[in-house]
Amino acid sequence: MARPPFRAAAARLRPRRPRAPLATLGAAPRPWIRALGLLAVVVLGAWLGLLAVGSVRAPVGPMDTTMTLRPSVSGGTKINVSPLGALRLDSHHAPVRLDVDVDQLDPERSQALVKHPERLSGLQDEVTGDVAAGTRELAVRSCVAVVTGATALGLVVYRRPRRALAAGGLALALLAASGVSAYATWNPKSVLEPKFSGLLSSAPSVVGDARSIVTDFDVYQQELARLVTNVTKLYDATSTLPVYQPDPATIRVLHVSDIHLNPAAWHIVHSLVEQYEIDVIIDSGDTMDHGTAAENGFLDPARDLGAPYVWVRGNHDSQATQDYLKKLKNVHVLDEGSAVDVAGLRVAGTGDPQFTPDRVRPRGGEAAELRAGRELASALRAQQRAGTPVDIAVTHDPTAARETDGAVPLVLAGHVHHRVNELLPQGTRLKVEGSTGGGGLRAVQNEKPEKVRASVLYMDRSTRHLQAWDEITLGGLGLTTAEVSRHLPEENLVKSTPSPSATTPSP
């Protein structure tokens, strides 16, 4: 039906809305893009809020500290102890990390402790309360900082109060979820395995000896309290460092391996022997690169390292290498299951059955390693029957080492240039060390320098069982970084009980 004339005229006079250009069709942001944008605003705003006002200055005993929450991928707790470095604790897994900066020792509070030493008996309780109060204040301030930062940035970006409030609410929800995640994954025993980075010479003073670490801590707050209490001992009026006093109840064994003709390794070993007051050094082989007689002079420093040197042959060490070491004073060469009593321990070992310095010559392969391992296990059982049980067995290849399972409490190896720690099915603990020489010439052949690795093993002097160990890692060529990581056997973590405070008077 045709329109009436007056309607047609009105339609022609009505102004038409301009059509949107074809290029703008579909330009509205998709929902997931808007959501990602909001999430980015929330995370950035929350981070800026934490940076601005998310720190709490809290007195902890005689020390002034700053506690801060920081965004993190792995979580955990970091305690910065200037000028020594930092202690890292795997305390929780969440997208936030707790940073505790030990700023300074308060002169008045520290002098009060010096003048009134009886107050030391209550220092741990005081520190526990200080840590708890600081943590509560930090939680409240962090909530305010996160919500304020996200809301402010949301208002700047969106210019809409509703969107800004949504950003603040989402930030609070994310912080709450992080708190729940931290609570669910809280590890109160994390301080038993701290990781220290910074000045290697001060690491033992901060980490402490194995026996005190096993027995002196129970729950996290008390552990952190004791930790901070021990840190205070690093400071006096002139901020001097104390002398490291090793526990006389432990035998300290330095495990090195795969030096591969790196002369810098001797200096590192000598330094560790002095710093940790090592009782015996055990080298699980590959001291050489080609095993030629021309290389033998490289071995001379082994006799002057300050501790007995126990050695087994690696696949880069020749019989000529072994014969030369046998002539050196203070060196004990083990092969074919032979044993030696040294530093209160009985150690037995065997050399690698293969000599493959150029990786071209025919080799016996895994079968040769398995056979050598079985022969070593047979020698260990014979020692047991004879009433002279072996405390530590040593091979070069882990394949041979695994064959000693059940015949010895602890077996050491090398060869693979990375660390392995494994409790074998029949109860023997296998510890494989990385390269103490940083891979030798491989350090300049590889794209990245190989790190220098060694470990200090703490053995109980009465039971001669492994109590704990420190993994020492240096940053390859140049040695620009140093890290010490404390580890305990699982059985010690289960059986450890807190001991009375060192400051509590004996009855």
The CATH top-level class label of the largest domain: Alpha Beta
Low-confidence blocks of residues:
20-26, 213-221, 230-244, 494-507
Shape verdict? elongated
The CATH architecture term of the largest domain is 4-Layer Sandwich
Rg over C-alpha atoms, rounded to the nearest angstrom: 31 Å
Structure summary, number of beta strands: 19
Content of β-strand? 15-25%
Keywords: Hydrolase, Membrane, Metal-binding, Transmembrane, Transmembrane helix
Protein name: Metallophosphoesterase
Domain Calcineurin-like phosphoesterase: 251-418
Pfam families: Metallophos
Indicate the topology:
Layout: H1 5-13, H2 31-53, E1 55-60, E2 63-71, E3 77-81, E4 85-89, E5 96-105, H3 107-115, H4 123-158, H5 161-184, E6 195-198, H6 203-207, H7 210-215, H8 220-232, E7 250-256, H9 264-276, E8 280-283, E9 309-311, H10 319-326, E10 331-333, E11 338-342, E12 345-349, H11 365-385, E13 392-394, H12 398-402, E14 410-413, E15 420-423, E16 429-432, H13 442-445, E17 452-460, E18 466-474, E19 482-487, H14 490-495
Parallel strand pairs: 3-5, 7-8, 8-9, 9-10, 12-13, 13-14, 14-16
Antiparallel strand pairs: 1-2, 2-5, 3-4, 4-6, 6-19, 7-17, 11-12, 15-16, 17-18, 18-19
Helix pairs in contact: 2-4, 2-5, 4-5, 4-8
Keywords, separated by commas or semicolons:
elongated; 507 residues; disordered C terminus; Purple Acid Phosphatase, chain A, domain 2; 2 domains; 21% strand; 36% helix; 13-stranded mixed β-sheet; 6-stranded mixed β-sheet; alpha/beta
Task: Tell me about this structure.
The chain has 507 residues and is α/β, with parallel strands linked by helices. The chain has 2 domains: 33-197, no CATH class; 218-493, Metallo-dependent phosphatases (Purple Acid Phosphatase, chain A, domain 2, 4-Layer Sandwich), CATH 3.60.21.10. Helices cover 36% and strands 21% of the residues. The protein is built from 14 helices and 19 strands. It has helices spanning 5-13, 31-53, 107-115, 123-158, 161-184, 203-207, 210-215, 220-232, 264-276, 319-326, 365-385, 398-402, 442-445, 490-495; strands at 55-60, 63-71, 77-81, 85-89, 96-105, 195-198, 250-256, 280-283, 309-311, 331-333, 338-342, 345-349, 392-394, 410-413, 420-423, 429-432, 452-460, 466-474, 482-487. The strands form 2 sheets. A 13-stranded mixed β-sheet has the order 1-2-5-3-4-6-19-18-17-7-8-9-10. The longest helix is centred in the N-terminal third of the chain and has 36 residues, at 123-158. It is elongated, with a radius of gyration of 31 Å. The model is unreliable at 20-26, 213-221, 230-244 and 494-507 (pLDDT under 50).
